[in-house]
């Protein structure tokens, strides 16, 4: 049984079809990249999976159960977490509290009145936050205000926030966007290390094809809202249809 499965997924915005009959599946422990020209529907598909958008038609199943109708925080509690295209952090809070809030949200959902309690009063939450910051190399900066981190470390923290939810599936939307070559290399190494140390499946959206080819077990290619190819990096590299899609482009 696939960990994640979409079936005939359609999303229309007025007269524009952003995803068109998209059926994909991801197995546990698979490293999958989602690529395509600008406007291909990648972000829409991710937002459908994380329940930030409702599909016009189709089905989404996680661990064999439909997640349609769930709120985004319910999907996180089911085991799906997302790191965003731009760093999504709590800038005025210390790094450790950023990780604690993510762990608390995964444990208690919307938590509501739990926010009235001290963040460090939950032993399990504190342990998850500590482990996560150690994994992403930010434990030494745990008392630093997130706003004071260098850009690359802010992106690492953002990835750490996603990991603190202890997901079975991690969705990463351009995790190296805006990074220097050195920061990009460090982030790719971090992703590889996290995959090796945790029982983690991920779906990566990334424009850097060198990263995609090196880090993926399988690649899914979207063009104009439709899946035009799926396969290993070698198969995708040799696909004339994929080459045509990138040469022709598609703008949103």
UniProtKB/TrEMBL annotation:
Role this protein plays: Probable component of a branched-chain amino-acid transport system.
Q: Does the keyword Transferase apply?
A: no
Entry GO terms, CC? plasma membrane
Identify this protein by name.
Answer: Probable branched-chain amino acid transport ATP-binding protein LivG
| SMART domains in UniProt | AAA (SM00382)
Q: What is the lineage of its organism?
A: Archaea, Methanobacteriati, Methanobacteriota, Stenosarchaea group, Halobacteria
Give a yes or no for keyword Thylakoid in this entry: no
- Source organism: Halosegnis rubeus
The family annotation for this protein states:
Belongs to the ABC transporter superfamily.
Keywords noted in UniProt: Amino-acid transport, ATP-binding, Nucleotide-binding, Transport
């Amino acid at each position: 049984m696939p960990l994640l499965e979409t079936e005939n997924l359609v999303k229309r915005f007025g007269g524009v079809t952003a995803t068109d009959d998209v059926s994909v599946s991801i197995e546990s422990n698979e490293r999958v990249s989602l690529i395509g020209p600008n406007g291909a529907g990648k972000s829409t598909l991710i937002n459908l999976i994380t329940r930030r958008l409702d599909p016009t038609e189709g089905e989404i199943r996680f661990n064999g159960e439909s997640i349609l109708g769930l709120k985004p925080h319910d999907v996180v509690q089911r085991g799906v977490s997302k790191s965003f295209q731009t760093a999504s952090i709590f800038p005025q809070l210390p790094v450790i509290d950023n990780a604690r809030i993510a762990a608390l949200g995964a444990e208690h959902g919307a938590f509501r009145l739990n926010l009235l309690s001290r963040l460090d009063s939950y032993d399990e939450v504190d342990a998850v936050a500590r482990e996560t910051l150690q994994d992403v190399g930010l434990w030494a900066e745990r008392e630093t205000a997130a706003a004071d981190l260098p850009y690359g470390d802010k992106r690492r923290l953002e990835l750490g926030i996603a990991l603190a939810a202890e997901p079975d599936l991690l969705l990463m939307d351009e995790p190296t966007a805006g990074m220097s070559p050195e920061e990009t290399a460090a982030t790719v190494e971090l992703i590889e290390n996290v995959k090796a140390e945790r029982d983690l499946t991920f779906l990566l959206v990334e424009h850097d094809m060198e990263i995609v080819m090196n880090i993926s077990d399988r690649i899914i290619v979207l063009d104009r809202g439709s899946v035009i190819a799926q396969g290993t990096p070698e198969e995708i590299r040799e696909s004339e249809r994929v080459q045509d899609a990138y040469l022709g482009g598609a703008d949103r």
